[in-house]
Amino acid sequence: MHKYYVSITEAAYNVESENFELSVKFIGHDLESALEAGGVPKLYLGTEKEHKEADYYLDKYINQRLHMIVDGESLNFKFIGKEINNDDFIYCYLESSKIASPKKITIKNTLLTEVFNKQANTVYLTVRGQKFNYSLNKGKVSDTYTIE
Question: What whole-number distance in Å separates Cα of residue 108 and Cα of residue 144?
Answer without folding.
Answer: 9
